[in-house]
Amino acid sequence: MLSIEILTQFNRWWKTHSVEQELAPDIKRDMFSKIEKYLKLRQIVAVVGLRRTGKTTMIFQVIDDLIKSGVDPKNILYFSFDESVDDIRSLATLYSEKILKKEIRSEKIYIFLDEIQKLDDWQNKIKIYYDMYPNIKFFVTGSASVNILLDEKETLAGRIFYFELDVLSFEEFLRFKGKDVVLLKNDADIWKHEIKIELENYLLRPFPETIDFDDDVAKVYIKENIVEKAIFRDLRVLFDVKDIELIERLIMIVASDPGLILNLDEISKEVGKSRQTVSNYMRYLKDCFILKDVRNYRGSFKASSRKLKKYYLIHPCIALALADASIGKVAENLVQFASKANLFWREANKEVDFVLQDGSQILPIESKYSSKIRMRDLKGLLRFMDKFGVDTGFVITEDYEALEVYKGFNIQFVPLWKYLLGITSQKTI
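Below the sequence we write its predicted structure tokens.
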């Protein structure tokens, strides 16, 4: 049962007038500065993402900034729905009567609701307060995209802004380790050895809590705190998933071979389940940020095939923790993560790993984690560029770096460690 003791435990700044530094560390995710711009707007701010990416820490950092800017600490309410509460009403009533000791509508109030997807029908419940109390600024987080990003689009249309918090980018990882990223980028060739060592560390440690873990501990952390909790908590609760063995098997298929084009008909026969069940379970894994699918480009985004899909882990750390994927596949998965590509191209026996599109601009990207690459290894890339009239393509390599012109096409070879730092001689999109 909700009590004033529970609320006070969550909101210790009511007593101390500050947020403890261990809850709100000085170093911030890149997204923090983006979210700050929306705090003065009335609309709800929703931050979603995989478990342990730092959503709760970001909340406390926002609260810390509000208090430092002069907001009365008692005008800030934080609550996590890890604590069982059936309705926002009881939370708001207790807060108004015992803490504010006045009408909740009397002045500006900031309400932060963590793991909101655990509250049944949260969209309609929060909409009532949003519409009735224009002085309340809501900030919500969740670990499942289907509840935050899909279900509320009708209920909260025009009332909410969404942000997806990924695991650490390579640049964020370096900053969290205390590295001077500007220095490293300005003199990248001088710092190549050190950057490549940190890239090896980053592959298994993209969560803020794991940056100083050794390999074995990092793998256990990913298995137990990320994958298993997503399966046994989020999937079971949100989607009433009963076949846990099938979920685990599907994850392992992708973890063993990231970038695999999955034929759902063949998979359903292999696992002895209906195609619809397999399709649903793959979607659930996407909605809980474990998997990412990439669709086949067909000349325009709208025409891209919804049937032919490649599947990746949200980050290759999961492949490294669960399976024995090749370094080439791990690198390909990392390129997908860094580029945020949602398209690839395949026609007959020709293929391009990723296609980025921004309006009329198209950039094909091949991941070839090797230092020796021949033009005959790039037949798919060259065919794509010729077919769609694209003059520049990227090839992400291990160490090879060059700009080569072949049959009128510009091929930019970029080492992975430079690509992750945004160091290229050609414009990207």
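The mean pLDDT is 92.
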